[in-house]
Design goal:
- Helix content is 43%, strand content 19%.
- By secondary structure, the protein is α/β, with parallel strands linked by helices.
- The strands form 3 sheets. A 4-stranded parallel beta sheet has the order 4-8-7-6, sandwiched between helices. The protein has a two-stranded parallel sheet with strand order 1-5.
- The longest helix is centred in the N-terminal third of the chain and has 26 residues.
C-alpha cells in the first residue's frame, strides 16, 4: 500500500516520462532505420508534384534505382511493358516512399527529390479473390476499384496494377480506359500499369 501510494502521488510525472520516452524511442528508431537504408530528407509539397531521383524500394535487396517525375500539369502516368519489367515495383516504390515521407521517415533517394503529401492513398495491387465470398480475381478487383472510384478526390494518390486484367482483353481494355478517365476527371494523381499495348495511343 505504501509503494502504491508513492506511485499514485507521482502518477502525472510518470505518465509524462513514459510519453516522452515513447517519442524519443520512435525518433531514435527512425534515425537508425534511416542509416540502414541510406535515407535522405526530401522536399515536401501539397501541389501533387513528385520528383524521385535514384529512388529505391526500401524492402528489396539491391533494387534498380528509378527516376520519376509527376506534376506541373501532368498527374497521371500509365506504364506498359512485358511481365517482369518492373512496372509493379515502380508503383509500389512510389506508394511506399510517399507513405514513409508522410510518417516522418527519410527515404532512399538522392538529394533534390520531392514528394507530395496526399489526403488519401488508394491501392489496387494483387489478387483479392475469395472462395468464401464467391469472388473471382476479376470480381474482387472490380469491387475494390469501384470503392476507389467512390472515395477518390483531387487530394488522392491512386496506384492500380494491371488494370482490366482477368477478363476478355477487349472488354478489359475498355473497362481500364473508362476507369482511368473517371479517376483523371476527379483530379487524382494516378500511377497505373497495364499489359494492353493499345492503351499507349489513348493515354498519350
Amino acid at each position: 500500500m505504501y509503494l502504491t501510494g508513492l506511485i499514485e502521488n507521482e502518477q502525472s510525472t510518470i505518465n509524462i516520462s513514459v510519453e516522452t520516452m515513447l517519442v524519443y524511442d520512435c525518433l531514435f528508431a527512425k534515425a537508425k532505420y534511416s542509416e540502414q537504408i541510406n535515407g535522405t530528407k526530401v522536399k515536401v509539397n501539397e501541389s501533387h508534384h513528385i520528383n524521385l531521383i535514384e529512388a529505391k524500394h526500401p524492402l528489396l535487396t539491391d533494387p534498380v534505382p528509378l527516376n520519376l517525375t509527376l506534376g506541373n500539369g501532368v498527374h497521371a502516368l500509365v506504364i506498359t511493358g512485358p511481365n517482369t519489367g518492373g512496372k509493379t515495383v515502380t508503383i509500389k516504390t512510389v506508394g511506399i516512399l510517399t507513405l514513409m515521407t508522410q510518417c516522418g521517415f527519410h527515404i532512399p533517394v538522392q538529394e533534390g527529390s520531392e514528394i507530395s503529401i496526399f489526403q488519401s492513398i488508394y491501392v489496387d495491387i494483387g489478387d483479392g479473390q475469395s472462395i468464401e465470398e464467391n469472388l473471382s480475381t476479376f470480381s474482387s478487383r472490380l469491387v475494390n476499384v469501384i470503392d476507389i472510384l467512390r472515395k477518390t478526390n483531387d487530394r488522392s494518390l491512386v496506384l492500380v496494377d494491371e488494370l482490366g486484367s482477368g477478363t476478355d482483353p477487349s472488354e478489359g481494355m475498355g473497362l481500364a480506359i473508362s476507369i482511368l478517365d473517371e479517376l483523371y476527371e476527379k483530379g487524382a494523381t494516378i500511377l497505373a500499369t497495364t499489359h494492353f499495348n493499345e492503351m499507349k495511343k489513348i493515354c498519350h
